[in-house]
Amino acid sequence: MSSDTPARPAPDLDALDLDTRQTAALTRRAMGWLVALLLLVAASALALWLFLRSEETREADRRRTADAEWLDQTLRFHFRRLETDLAALAQAHQNGGDDHAVAARHGPWWQSPGRIAFHGWVPAAPPGGRSGWPAELQAAAQDPGHAAALATMLDTTRGLQRPAYAGPFATADGGDAWLWLAVPHFEQGRFTGDAVAAVPVQRLLADVLPAWFLQDHNVALADENSTAAPDDGLHFTAPIQLPGAQLRLRVALTDSTPPLAPRAFFAAALLCLLGMLLALLALWRDSARRQRAEARLQTQLALRTAMERSVTLGLRAWDTQGRLLHVNPAFARLVGWTPAELMAHTGPLPYWPADQGDEFEQVQRAAQAPEALALQLQHRDGQRLDVLAHSAPLRLASGEVVGWVGSVLDVTERRRIERLAARQQEQLEASGRLVAMGEVASTLAHELNQPLGALSSFATGLLNRVREQRITLEEIVPVVERMERMADKAGRVIQRVNALARRQETVRLPLALAPWAARVAQAVPLPEGVRLELALPGSDGPTVPADALLLENALHNLVLNAGEWAARSGRTPPTVRVGLVTGDGQIGLRVCDSGPGVPPEQRATVFDAFASHKPGGMGMGLAICRSIAEAHHGHIDLSDCPDLLGAQFTLWLPLNP
Predict the structure, then answer these.
(1) Transmembrane ranges (predicted)?
(2) 158-207 pLDDT per residue, tens
């Protein structure tokens, strides 16, 4: 990689301390601005639409006004030409010329047949008189309203010395309405008469208005007696102001196509607003997704913060260059420094002992180790702390490592407890060895007491008879053989007790319990007066794998202990009973007595070593019995004898250990 390649910036871990309330407030503010922008776009679209409607309305009004003014100017222009022609006709009439010849020499009014329905001369007459009116004028005056209008027209020409108009009036046959025009003539200041003409209005409109205008407009005379459509964008009334009369035309637009330029501008603006609306909607969706992501982030941050506060693990984070980026409060409390002090520290960090090497190298090594590394940290007060360190790389979704995260667990107190426990264990083991030695010694003393006592008695008796020379050689041999058997038995007792003390497996052979139990029980020296009862089957009974010598010692101790307590009870006759009982996959040697029994408060310790409740007892007999039962994978229990009213001990042996 070249040296001018920019280094990757350190990962931003400020989000670990993000103030979610401030973020939520910023999000709400951004959503508020977004709603305001959406409302502004909607208001702009509405204002633009209203502006377009207003412009179209103004354009329609302007067009109607222009059309009305054009109609007014066009028709008035043609009527002025007609006035000029009529003035020429009046002059020709006064000069005695031909009216038709004069009319033929003038403009288009006379060249198009039917454009002028009537023209003639009305001589001067007294005001209100009709004697000189032509027949057509007399017919038009049949209606009183028409007559008054026509009379006013003629009076106006005479009085004001200018042309005047009347009508338009409907004809008697219901055809096209006529508009009447009168042009006065004066000779040397004296009124001589009027030249009058009647113009069919609808024919006039068809001839005068150009085709290009009629292509987009339908013009007709407004009928005041019928209900016309109100003025709107497609219909309007155009008044033509003529002297003495008002010609009202109803104009209908046949081409209602609105102007293209405003609508094109509106379409372009609407597209821009629509694009802005789509962008705002996309921003809204993005903001909603961001808000949901921020809500999840806030939940995760709250969970992380709660977890970080609830655990005692010290957490740190580094970038790839080994610079410390984050320290959690638990680690700061562990080493006695605040997070701000540790983050602002330059050089080796104060909690890291120098004899452990480089901290960042240990962090990377801990990430590769299968188990936690046992390290030490130094508290601010100088105390060394034992910790277990774990670490892991901080990876992006692409797999790139951008840093490291490490955790430490303070095990100082655990180490102290472990050391203390180790010392206590050593002391306990030493005490146990002493106890075991005492148990072995006591067991040997207890078990060897009888054979050694018998050996001592045989040896003393034999020695006395030899000294007195009262024994022959043949009598010595049986005594010595019996002493040999006693010594052999003592040796085997020592071997079994030694094996038992060392927790070695006993040598178990098949043993018929019924005859064996009868022989052992009958060989026990019971106190005088104590009766022995044998509740054993007549045959060999069940057979179990057992070490006969060890089991003999156990039964011997139980029967001897029962006989001693039966003799002290005061019940007559004192009795000891030996029997066999069966259980679930096991057989029990049961010894009952008629003694006082074992008090409840003593039953928890009756099988403990050196726990004797008998005067002069060592407290090893029942402990040895329990050890022998356990050596045979069995157990021994204590209960009350229901009929002899004394103690009842049962030594349980498994049939198939």
Answers:
(1) 30-52, 264-284
(2) 888 889 888 788 777 767 788 888 888 888 878 888 888 888 888 888 87
CA dihedral 280, 281, 283, 286 (to 10 degrees): 180
End-to-end, the C-alpha distance of the chain in Å comes to 75
**Strand (E) positions, 530-574?**
531-535, 543-546
Q: Please enumerate in sequence order all residues whose Cβ is within 8 A of that of 656, keeping only pairs 6 or more positions apart, or say none.
A: 585
C-beta of residue 603 within 8 angstroms of C-beta of residue 637: no
Strands (E), 154-276: 164-169, 178-187, 190-200, 217-221, 235-242, 245-253
Query: CATH says 506-654 is which class?
Result: alpha beta
CA atoms within 13 Å, Cβ hemisphere of 23: 17
Long-range pairs, 88-97, Cβ under 8 A, ≥24:
89/119, 89/121, 89/195, 90/121, 90/183, 90/184, 90/185, 90/192, 90/193, 90/194, 90/195, 91/185, 93/121, 93/185, 93/193, 93/195, 94/185, 94/187, 94/192
**Fold match, 312-410 / 506-654:** no
Say which DSSP state 220 is in: E
d(CA 181, CA 140): 13
pLDDT at 319 over 70: yes
Q: pLDDT tens digits, residue range 531-583?
A: 999 988 878 778 899 888 888 888 988 998 898 888 887 788 899 999 999 88
Residue 601 has, within 13 A of its CA and on its CB side, a CA count of 1
Regarding the domain with residue range 312-410, which homologous superfamily does it belong to in the CATH classification? Answer: PAS domain (3.30.450.20)
pTM of the full structure: 0.40
635 vs 655: CA distance, rounded Å: 13
Name which of 216-225, 339-348, 494-503, 611-620 the model is least confident about: 494-503
Token pair, residue 128, equals 């209100």
State how far the alpha carbon of 440 is from the alpha carbons of 430, 483, 500, in Å. Answer: 15, 24, 9
The domain locations on the chain are 116-253, 312-410, 416-504, 506-654
For the chain, what is the radius of gyration of the CA atoms? 70
